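Journal club prep, shared notes

We agreed each person brings one worked example of a sequence with its structure written out as tokens. Mine is ABC transporter permease. I'm keeping it raw so we can talk through how to read the token line rather than staring at a rendered picture. Sequence first:
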Amino acid sequence: MTNIHTPSGTSAQSGAKTASFRSAARGPAPLARLKDIGFWAEWAALVGLVLLVIVFQSANSTFLSSGNIQAMLTASAILIVLAVGQTFVITTGGIDLSVASVMTFAAVAFGLTYEHQRNLALSCVVAVVAGLAWGIVNGLLVSLGKITDFIATLGTLSAASGAALILSNGKPTTVINSTLLKLSSGGIGLLGWSFIIAAIVAVLAHVVYFRTRFGTHVLATGGSVEAAAATGVRTQRIKLAVYAIAGVLAGLAAILLVSRVGAAEPAANTAYLLNSVAAVVLGGVSLVGGRGSIFGPVVGALLLTALTNGLTLLGVSQFYQPLSVGVVVVLAALLSRFQK
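Then the structure, token by token:
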């Protein structure tokens, strides 16, 4: 038998390289990660939510009461649904400024349908279809019309708001239905039905976003339209689809809104537009496209809801609440520069 000998120095170098490779594969040590700004940027929404809970609970012991937690989760449902739709659009490098107005229009369509037909299921279908119609309009303007997403959705923002006022004659439509009332007041434990619906939407969106070919194409389109098109991705269809998804979810949010308010209000609530974008930014979704998540915007929506709720419990004037939201969003945007 022939023995093959290797120099001890070579063996030592090989072992060092192997150890170095394994260390790199495991990633940085936990303490090193805590010193990395990129780590905090990735988890900004979750860390911010935890800090808010600690601060508000210390200032007011009722913040984490079962009743207030349920109220916050129910209040966050509409924003979560809108933020999920906004996430798909922003991932492609676009933005949808019309979500709040489309939701208002869909709510008016819901209210008028129920007023004339007294059919809840039909009213829900009409609301979702109305949202889808506006979403398709946005998608066509951006993908086929080659209009900048900012201008296109700014136009439909105004158009949807005006159409809602014209259809309703500027008057709210009261909707009284026991099933709809249970949607806003009933639930399982601390989880209201509206929040459960929003959670289901988020889970389904996560599956579509990360486990389907469509989700991969959405991310590819946001990363580089030219590169995605060169690999066979039909980028125009992808852009049309994401705006359609945002429209459908705006229609669903309209149903949740009517169930909570008990009426279809024709006046658009611009706070939902600003907060839907804010939740996406807080969630770490890149505003230039190509990178994002569903979990992040959901946590971002919960953070914004907790912030508003906590300030209200502390008796802070509503005039300061938009200021606080703006500060939080700017800080999140600054942190996003350090994301890996």
